[in-house]
Amino acid sequence: MTSTGSTPARPLRVIGWSTGTVGRLVIAGIDARPDMELVGLWVSHPDKVGQDAGRLAGLDRDLGVLATNDKSELYDLGADVVIHSAMTDDRVFEGLEDLVDMVENGLNVVSSGPVLLTFPDGLGLDVYTDRIAAAGEESGASLHVNGIDPGWANDVLPLTVTSLSKRIDLVRVSEIADYSTYYQPVVMHDLFGFGRPLDYEAVLWQPGILTTAWGPVVKHIAAGLDLTLDEPLVEHVDRIAAESDFAIASCEIPAGTMAAVRFTVTGTVDGEPRVVLEHVTRTHVDQAPHWPTPAEGGGSYRVEVFGDPNMKVEFTHEGEDGDHNDSGMLTTAMRLVNAAHAVCAHPGGLVVAKDLPMITGRGLVAR
């Protein structure tokens, strides 16, 4: 295990897991940190096997690490941690099994999903969490799932803001964003149902799915505030249709099909709302002007704490190209990379964001 204090005597030995949108950024992020060394890389596509990690990450140079799809080969490397960013939104239980297998093989893991594991209490995942706990007790290996949302923007940031409170009546965390340049066709077209008829039963709008996907955010905040929430959480969804045909990065959106959505997952105590997770997702900046809008640019995360005092934090980001969806992928990747040392130092088992120490971008100031 490594220390989160002074720079370790040797770099953290890291395995990258996938080379998709986030995975490529993870590789570049590992390469940017002087206290990390990429020692292995897993890929799912057979055409990528044998290719250099640097080329797969778009770095235009070799890193001397060749991709493989042989898990046992990677497990035998003696690495400290796996940074896992493979797509799990459409293969949740397979993803859970993958992560548990890594921990049972003695590897620390930091992952972007499945997001259920950001705070799995009450989700009926004991068959997995019990195995993670047992493996952690035996080997000291830890597992942490996070990102930007679900993740830092709606667990670490709001809980940090509440440290300034004298009285808290309500915590509301929101993502307010234009997804027109976000390229994830499975997520946008199938899970959300953008470009589908309004009566299409997309996965996310089926009863209980929002509670499964974003309920962990609400329960994580509640746990940080020592609240016992009513069951079940309260879900609400509003969708609007496109007025004309147009296209976004992920799919076509014909007139009359779903073009924007606003949803909330609310945790109540004795019937009184206490924690609210909200998403306002547009595919064009001019849609639904009566819904909340970002303070600037194409997207923001908003934290509102009502009580004494009333507080609001608006967090925005954009990539070097000015696109907030690109930087959303980068912030997710770097949250994983920068958390790796702290996760390795944890005593073992599943670790949630509220229980980690402060994580910084140590070593990343431009030299």
Automatic annotation (TrEMBL):
Example of a GO biological process term: lysine biosynthetic process via diaminopimelate
GO molecular function, one term: 4-hydroxy-tetrahydrodipicolinate reductase
Signal peptide: none
InterPro entries referenced in this protein's UniProt entry, alphabetically: DAP_DH_C, DapB_N, NAD(P)-bd_dom_sf
Domain spans labelled 2,4-diaminopentanoate dehydrogenase C-terminal: 155-360
Pfam family, one: DapB_N
SUPFAM superfamilies according to UniProt: NAD(P)-binding Rossmann-fold domains
Organism domain of life: Bacteria
Domain Dihydrodipicolinate reductase N-terminal as annotated: residue spans: 18-83
UniProtKB keywords: Kinase, NADP, Oxidoreductase, Transferase
The keyword Transmembrane belongs to this UniProt entry's keyword annotation: no
Protein name from the UniProt record: Diacylglycerol kinase
